[in-house]
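Q: Sequence in, structure out?
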Amino acid sequence: MRSNLILKMSVLDKQTEVNYIIPQRGVDEDEIFNVWDMQKPGFHVVKRLITIKEHSFYFTHQSIWLESYFKDPDDKEFLFKFIASNDHKTNSLCVVSILEGERLLLPELRFSIENFDLDAIFNLKRAIVELYQIKTLSGKEYTLQLHNA
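A: Exactly. Output:
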């Protein structure tokens, strides 16, 4: 059973790397679970079998919802969010956001993963998500990577 993910911040003009541990808050197969009710930052995984009766079609719905607070090189705190789910077998939608309060720091990054499979994503040996050269107001640059622990 997986236990943690890591949000890694690297400052580009220094040899500075900060790891933010993102604890697992739950694994659930309950259709009524509402990720927005999560009490603390962390991540929650939902996997459940879906049957579409009209088409006699079965697939495993998978979704992950993650949030983690981190501090940029100017010591400002931001919220990193990663939300992903599959739809009808293998199509997926992944959304990455960085927020300061209610304001988006960067435009949302939206992408798809072919043959979306949470188990495969958790077994990746490289970064799951990588954002390059984010600039602070003072001009400092850093990168963010979401990794397996």
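The chain has a mean pLDDT of 84.
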